[in-house]
Fold DNA-directed RNA polymerase subunit Rpo12.
Amino acid sequence: MSYYCTQCKKEIDIDYESSGVRCSYCGHRILVKKRPTTLKRIEAK
Ligand SMILES: [Zn+2]
């Protein structure tokens, strides 16, 4: 699952089984789940 760090804005792959939730670049502990940027619009006729 992909997350990104709220501090350094880098993308992180979290491995829950190893050392828990933490940014591997800066050590920040607040990570946000990355959302797909593709928005689908359904137009009703
Ligand atoms: Zn970070």
The pocket of zinc ion is lined by residues 5, 7-8, 10, 23, 25-26, 28 (CB under 6 Å). Strands lie at 2-5, 11-13, 31-33.
